[in-house]
Every structure is written in structure tokens, then in C-alpha cells.
Write a structure and sequence with these properties.
24% strand; binds flavin-adenine dinucleotide
Length: 528
């Protein structure tokens, strides 16, 4: 097989947040970009996060000031660019003197030296100091600062055991992680990128300083070769496999795979704030209001054996998270209360840390030319830093092709996000007025998923029946068609667990009906 067509400036391997963020930034600077994702967009780590745009309060204990500062500043930049899929959230951190550090953080080592009588406990003044830094490092304009909460009287105290008398409350943001990925892909495509899902990069051979890259359609098995000047390896958990087996580089950088799991229960508390619980083992756990009727609890840190081992939330992890939150909740939960679990693998740069919790969450970008043409390998990173990471990748690309235009993504909204953070409720009300047949929850879901594009999804419908087949839980054919035509969805899972989270509400039979509809639609399109 020989290479066909033009030479692409960039071939991005991986349609997680980092690959899609890089594709968008590069396409916006005029580069020709092809992105290949072997499964669905966000099918790996980028749909399995805790879904926070956050500075990472706990990273302060590891003295990761660069990462925390960059992430804190980034929160508001991102929030402004996507006020539909991201929103401010308040975090309630109950204080109790028994909460301890993980023993090998630099902060705990310092404290053990100067205040050995604390025996690993996290003193209140240190939490206060951390929150003061958190409030000031990142130049907040939209998000409110830290306050103190009297749990005996505040509504946030009701869900907690009475031994928790006091809490600190601070700000971070929520983001719909899988939708973030797909909106970056859509914007990249609108700016000229080629987005190829269900397309695996099976090999890449350097020839005369260019890459000949073999792409395999994972549905049909058909292969094609394309040429590219630079490869961006955004393979996430597979970054090491791509280095070794696909581009055959001699790089010695390696990835550390750390699994994190979450459990979902029915809603455990009445308010819309999130809890930040500290454990006696030094770890932390979030309990977050989720999809209106649920609570999301996570996460864990477990070494994970290999990228091809599907991450699952083990019974031990489930029991650990249940016990963790039960140390706080007034009404304890049990594993029987779990309605869904999910698990993802952090592709961290192997910095030789002793524990999975301690391994750096910062990103590391490496240019590697040992295979005869350039490849940029991406390790680590956060959902929160994806835009900055993409700019970092572009800095490296500009060393290779010097006339590249400058940074542009800060302040440019993602599709559907062209309104102010303060206008969300008005947008929901506008949609409900324009489509009076929508229930309040349906109108909210549409704006939170699609922003101003919700009007394009619903089109000229005057009644719910105009939206075609009803699959349940407010999912209709009009929305499914949009997701297949505009958001790269091809099987039911793409829709019920990534483009939406309606899998929490739809019955098995309803999902099967959706699958049949999507297959028929795919077959009809193929026959045309
Ligand atoms: C439990 C957990 C909680 C987290 N919580 C947060 C949080 O709250 N906030 C935050 O900011 N960050 C969080 N993170 C971190 C964040 O989720 C990750 O850093 C980010 O999703 C990594 O994205 P990625 O694009 O590098 O990898 P991925 O999303 O895994 O994408 C890599 C993609 O590459 C594809 N691929 C691999 N090899 C090939 C190939 N040969 N051909 C084609 N495609 C290929 C894969 O199919 C995959 O889709 C969390 C992570 C975990 C695991």
C-alpha cells in the first residue's frame, strides 16, 4: 500500500481531551491536521475523570505550585469559553482534628520535623493557609473565595455526623468531561481538521523525514496510509505502546498507569454543593451532586497493569469509598446503594514517586526524533490543563515549523458556548419559551449539553412528537440524529454514557431500541 493524498502537518493519535485540544489549537493556526481515535472520542480516561476544573488543593501539599497556579488561572478562562458544559461549584471541607496527611508529602515531612507532636495530623491553620493560597494564586474574578461554615446551623451540616462542627467552603468548577472532548473535536473540524473515530494508528514508519502512517478502520478492517510531518502522541494510557510499538522510537520516557474509580448513588444530600472529605489515610474523597438525582463519589489511586486491561471499579475500591464517606455521613450508605460505577486510568509521567497518590499530575511534553521524524509524546496532565497543554505542544511544533501563528484559544468559545457565564438561566428560560412542550428538566439538560446549539438540535419542532422516535428520558430521534451527524456518535454507548449520561435513566430495553435505530440509520447512510 502506498501513501495517498496530501501531506498532513500533524497526525494526532488519540481522541481524548489532549488529542482533541491539540487538534483544535493546531487547526486554528492553519495547520492541516488529522486526528485518529481507535474507539469513540473520550472513550478512555477523558470520560472517566472526577469532572472538575480545579487547581488541585491537595497538590499544594506536594509543592506543585506551578501546576496549581496554572490550573487555578485556567479555571475561569475555560469557564468563560464553555458556560454551558462547565459551571462554578462550591466545595465544603469539614474539619476534624483526626484527618491526616499522606506520610510522604513534602508538607507532612516538614511538619513531622518541626511539629512531631502532630503525628501526621493536618492542622486547621494549614488548611486555612492552603485555602488562602488557593484563593490568591489564581487571580479569581468570577469565583467567590473561601468562607467558614458553621455546620451546626448551615444546611450543609445536615447530611453530616454531628461531630463535624466546622467546615471551610471554597470554589472550583464542574465540567462535563466527555462533552468537552467532543466540542473540541467539533471546533477542530470546523477549522479544517479531519476527525476520524474508530480509526486505529497501527504503525508509523519514518521515510525521508516524513511519517507514513497506517490507519485501520476498526469496523471494516480496511487500512490506508497517510503522510504527516509530525506525529502528536496523545494516546493517554497507550502513550508508551505508541512510543514502543507504533513509532518504534528509542525514547526512554515511560508512563505510570494509575487507576481511579468512582461510584454513583441516588442523591445523598439536598443542596448543590460538593463535599471534600479528608481520610485518616491522608487521601481525599469528593461527594458531588450529579445529574440532578444522583451523587458521584470518588476517587481511588491504584496501580494499573496495562492499557489493554479494561479499568473497572473493584469490589475493594467500592467498599473503600463507601467506608470513606460513611466516616462523615449522618445516614451511612452501603454497596447496595451503588447504581453505577466507572473507572479510568491516569497516564502519568513516571517520575519515580513512591506511591500512586504522590506521582505528579503535571504534564510532560517530549519531542522525540530518534525514529527519523518528529513525534511529540504527551504524558500526564489534567482535564483542567488541556488548553495550556495544547499551547505547549504548539510551542514545540513552532520550533519545527517557525512561521506558526500565535496562541488564540483563550477567550474563544467552544460550539454552543457563545454567551456569558451569568446568562445560563436566561438561556434555559429562552429555550423553554421557544419550545413550550419541553419540561423544565429537559430544557435545562438541552442547554447544559448543547448551549445555544440546543435550538439547532430541536429545529422547527412545535410538539415533542415533531422530534421523532422517543427513546425515553427525553432522548428523541432529533437529538440522536444530531449526535450521529454532528458529534461522531455511532453506537448507543457513545450517546448514553458519553454525549449524555442518560444511561443512568434509560432501561436496558430502551438502550437496545436506540442501538437498533442507530444501526438502521448507519446502514441507510452506507447504502446511499
Ligand atoms: C479517576 C480520574 C479522575 C480524574 N479527575 C480529574 C479532574 O477532576 N480534573 C482534571 O482536570 N483531571 C482529572 N483527571 C485527569 C484527566 O482525566 C486526564 O489527564 C485526561 O483525561 C487524559 O486525557 P488524554 O487525552 O491524555 O487521554 P485519554 O482520554 O485516555 O485519550 C487517549 C485516547 O487515545 C486513543 N488511542 C490510544 N492509542 C491509539 C492508537 N494507536 N490509535 C488511535 N487511537 C489511540 C485511546 O482510545 C484514547 O481514547 C482524572 C483522571 C482520572 C483517571
Amino acid at each position: 500500500m502506498t501513501a495517498e493524498g496530501d501531506i498532513r502537518d500533524l497526525l494526532v493519535i488519540g481522541g481524548g481531551i489532549n488529542g482533541c485540544g491539540v487538534a483544535r489549537d493546531a487547526a486554528g493556526r492553519g495547520l492541516s491536521v488529522t486526528l485518529a481515535e481507535m474507539s469513540d472520542l473520550a472513550s478512555a480516561t477523558s470520560s472517566a475523570s472526577t469532572k472538575l476544573f480545579h487547581g488541585g488543593l491537595r497538590y499544594l501539599e506536594y509543592f506543585e505550585f506551578r501546576l496549581v497556579r496554572e490550573s487555578l488561572i485556567e479555571r475561569e478562562t475555560l469557564l468563560r469559553a464553555m458556560p454551558h458544559i462547565a459551571w462554578p461549584m462550591r466545595f465544603v471541607l469539614p474539619y476534624h482534628p483526626d484527618m491526616r496527611f499522606e506520610s510522604d508529602t513534602p508538607t507532612s515531612k516538614l511538619l513531622n520535623t518541626f511539629m512531631p507532636w502532630m503525628r501526621g495530623r493536618r492542622p486547621a491553620w494549614l488548611i486555612r493557609l492552603g485555602l488562602l493560597l488557593y484563593d490568591t494564586l489564581g487571580g479569581r474574578k468570577i469565583l467567590p473565595g473561601t468562607t467558614t461554615v458553621d455546620l451546626a446551623t448551615a444546611p450543609e451540616g445536615r447530611a453530616l455526623q454531628p461531630r463535624f462542627a466546622k467546615a471551610y467552603e471554597y470554589s472550583d468548577c464542574w465540567v462535563e468531561d466527555a462533552r468537552l472532548v467532543v466540542l473540541n473535536a467539533r471546533d477542530a473540524e470546523a477549522r479544517g481538521a479531519r476527525i476520524m473515530t474508530r480509526t486505529q494508528v497501527t504503525s508509523a514508519e519514518a521515510q525521508g523525514g516524513l511519517w507514513n502512517v497506517t490507519l485501520k478502520d476498526t469496523r471494516t478492517g480496511a487500512s490506508q496510509i497517510i503522510r504527516a510531518r509530525t506525529i502528536v502522541n496523545a494516546g493517554g494510557p497507550w502513550v508508551g505502546d505508541v512510543i514502543r510499538d507504533t513509532v518504534h522510537s528509542r525514547s526512554t520516557d515511560s508512563v505510570r498507569l494509575v487507576r481511579g474509580s468512582h461510584i454513583v448513588t441516588r442523591r445523598l444530600f439536598a443542596h448543590d454543593k460538593c463535599y471534600f472529605f479528608q481520610g485518616t489515610d491522608g487521601r481525599i474523597m469528593f461527594a458531588i451532586p450529579y445529574e440532578t438525582d444522583f451523587t458521584l463519589i470518588g476517587t481511588t489511586d491504584q496501580e494499573h497493569e496495562g492499557p489493554d486491561t479494561p479499568p473497572v471499579c473493584t469490589p475493594e475500591e467500592q467498599a473503600y469509598m463507601v467506608d470513606f464517606v460513611n466516616a462523615y455521613l449522618a445516614q451511612p450508605i452501603s454497596v447496595e446503594d451503588i447504581v453505577w460505577t466507572y473507572s479510568g486510568v491516569r497516564p502519568l509521567y513516571d517520575d519515580g514517586s513512591s506511591s500512586a497518590t504522590a506521582a505528579t499530575r503535571d504534564y510532560t511534553l517530549k519531542v522525540d526524533k530518534t525514529a527519523g521524524a518528529p513525534v511529540i509524546n504527551i504524558f500526564g496532565g489534567k482535564i483542567t490543563t488541556y488548553r495550556r497543554l495544547a499551547e505547549g505542544v504548539m510551542d514545540l511544533v513552532s520550533d519545527l515549523s517557525p512561521d506558526l501563528p500565535g496562541k488564540w484559544t483563550a477567550g474563544v468559545p467552544l460550539p454552543g458556548g457563545d454567551f456569558a457565564v451569568s446568562e445560563v438561566e436566561a438561556k434555559i428560560a429562552d429555550l423553554a419559551r421557544a419550545y413550550p412542550f419541553l419540561s423544565a428538566a429537559w430544557a435545562r439538560r438541552m442547554i447544559r449539553a448543547y448551549g445555544t446549539d440546543a435550538h439547532n438540535v430541536l429545529g422547527t419542532a412545535k410538539a415533542a412528537s415533531d422530534l421523532g422516535q422517543d427513546f425515553g428520558a427525553t432522548l428523541t430521534a432529533a437529538e440522536v440524529d444530531w449526535l450521529m451527524d454532528r458529534e461522531y456518535a455511532s453506537i448507543a454507548d457513545d450517546i448514553v454514557w458519553r454525549r449524555t449520561k442518560l444511561g443512568l435513566r434509560l432501561a436496558g430495553q430502551e438502550i437496545a431500541t436506540l442501538e437498533t435505530y442507530m444501526q438502521r440509520r448507519d446502514n441507510a447512510a452506507a447504502a446511499e
